[in-house]
Automatic annotation (TrEMBL):
Highest taxon listed in the record's lineage: Bacteria
Lineage of producing organism: Bacteria, Pseudomonadati, Bacteroidota, Flavobacteriia, Flavobacteriales
Keyword entries, A-Z: Lipoprotein
Name of this chain's protein: Gliding motility lipoprotein GldH
Family matches, as Pfam families: GldH_lipo
InterPro entries: Motility-assoc_lipoprot_GldH
Amino acid sequence: MTRNKFLSFVAICLFTLLGCDSKQVLDTYKTLPNQWHKDSVVKINFKAPDSVNPYNLFVNVRNNHEYPFNNLFLIVKMNFPNGKIVADTLEYKMAKPDGTLLGTGFSDIKENKLWYKENVIFNESGTYQVSIQQAMRQNGEENGLVNLKGVTDVGFRIEYPEIPQ
């Protein structure tokens, strides 16, 4: 095997091994324009994986150096197939006190996997919808921030929970 073929083979093996995500059931993103408007709701529809097993749910957020806050407030709603809606107002830490963004990534875009719900059993068959809306405001301001800078993508993830060893 030539050196180039060997290096290509090793690269493909590493990509395959590192790219595997055995816990993932669903992982999807919606790209936002330059700013996240307060009335722009990210909606993600999905079918229940099954009605027996528990799953962990996450909100995924990609942000860049233009993100001006150290936290993020979101309103997340889960619409069930039978019409029931569960709404949560959630707060997540997005930066260290010195302003260094949290999350993973080597570039100026950081990816944050934020806990939403744990051990959820989808006991209704049909289509579910998750709606995600930013609910940021400046300190001391009553009205919410109209446009939030620095958030590039918002997503939703369903995972199998950790299996105890």
